[in-house]
């Protein structure tokens, strides 16, 4: 199932969500224009490499370029067209509602922090890995976790291709997000039980997704703006009401 839109709509543009999408796409287009050997070096330098981070924290913690900078820049790198397309659709569908409740500045801080937690979760579980971690998935997972708490009764329109035929239908956000989370948890558990050779081949950083999602659940209360609660529908599960201040 692939999300297309949510029943939660704000009355103002989600400026930070749009800006994050633009930055991610711009960086990816820059990556796409690099020669392969330059791209490999670029990913190594600005992706989060757990083994390099482990070494730097133990022996040269003042070398922020070896661990702190990549932890941040890795969130804006992607491994392919499908990778960035999927991430940006998820960010667009769910980022709008979360930014609406947190406010622009708080949402940006929340996004970056949950992304950092996500990357560190994966790095802690595989500290000797030399494979760079890249992608906005961890930060977006944090957005999904917060969305679950903010809008459990919302609806999500999803796309389900069956034999190349697209089917569109609506599911409760609670069901969709819990299904997504347990899918990551199952895949992450199978990855953890696999041998070292399987880890060395790379793939999806499942535990970054899990760490980001849990961070979104637990950190939301620190960022929720209780004075300015943004805009949402009076009953956000009813898509036929007018938008009102919440």
Written description of the protein model:
With 246 residues, this protein is mainly alpha-helical. It has one domain (2-237): Up-down Bundle (Rhomboid-like fold). It contains ten helices and five strands. The protein has helices at residues 15-32, 36-46, 50-59, 64-73, 81-102, 104-125, 137-150, 173-193, 196-200, 206-223, and strands at residues 2-6, 155-162, 165-172, 231-233, 243-245. The strands form two sheets. A three-stranded antiparallel beta sheet has the order 1-2-3. β2 (155-162) and β3 (165-172) form a beta hairpin. Residues 231-246 have low confidence and may be disordered.
Give the CA-CA distance, first to last residue. 30 Å
Strand order within the widest beta sheet: 1-2-3
- Domains, number: 1
The CATH superfamily title: Rhomboid-like
CATH topology title: Rhomboid-like fold
**Helix fraction?**
55-70%
**Helix and strand pattern:** EHHHHHHHEEHHHEE
Approximate strand percentage: 5-15%
Rg for CA atoms: 18 Å
Concise summary:
This protein is mostly helical and 246 residues long. The protein has helices at residues 15-32, 36-46, 50-59, 64-73, 81-102, 104-125, 137-150, 173-193, 196-200, 206-223, and strands at 2-6, 155-162, 165-172, 231-233, 243-245.
Write the layout of secondary structure elements.
Layout (H helix, E strand, L loop, with lengths): L1 E5 L8 H18 L3 H11 L3 H10 L4 H10 L7 H22 L1 H22 L11 H14 L4 E8 L2 E8 H21 L2 H5 L5 H18 L7 E3 L9 E3 L1
Antiparallel strand pairs: 1-2, 2-3, 4-5
Helix pairs in contact: 1-5, 3-4, 5-6, 5-7, 6-7, 6-10, 7-8, 7-10, 8-10
């Amino acid at each position: 199932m692939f999300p297309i839109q949510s029943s939660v709509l704000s009355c103002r543009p989600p400026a930070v969500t749009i800006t994050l999408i633009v930055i991610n796409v711009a960086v990816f287009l820059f990556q796409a224009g690099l020669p392969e050997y330059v791209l490999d070096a670029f990913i190594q330098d600005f992706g989060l490499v757990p083994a390099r981070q482990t070494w730097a924290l133990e022996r040269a913690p003042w070398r922020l370029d070896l661990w702190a900078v990549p932890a941040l820049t890795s969130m804006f790198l992607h491994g392919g067209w499908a990778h960035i397309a999927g991430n940006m659709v998820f960010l667009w569908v769910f980022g709008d509602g979360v930014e609406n409740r947190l406010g622009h500045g708080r949402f940006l801080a929340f996004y970056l922090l949950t992304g950092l937690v996500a990357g560190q979760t994966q790095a802690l579980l595989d500290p000797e890995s030399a494979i760079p971690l890249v992608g906005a998935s961890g930060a977006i997972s944090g957005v999904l976790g917060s969305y679950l708490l903010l809008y459990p009764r919302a609806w999500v329109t999803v796309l389900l291709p069956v034999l190349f035929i697209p089917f569109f239908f609506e599911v409760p956000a609670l069901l969709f997000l819990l299904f997504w989370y347990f899918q990551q948890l199952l895949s992450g558990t199978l990855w953890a039980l696999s041998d070292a050779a399987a880890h060395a081949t790379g793939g999806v950083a499942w535990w970054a997704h899990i760490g980001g999602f849990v961070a979104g659940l637990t950190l939301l209360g620190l960022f929720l703006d209780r004075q300015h609660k943004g805009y949402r529908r009076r009953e956000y599960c009813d898509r036929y009401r007018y938008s009102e201040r919440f």
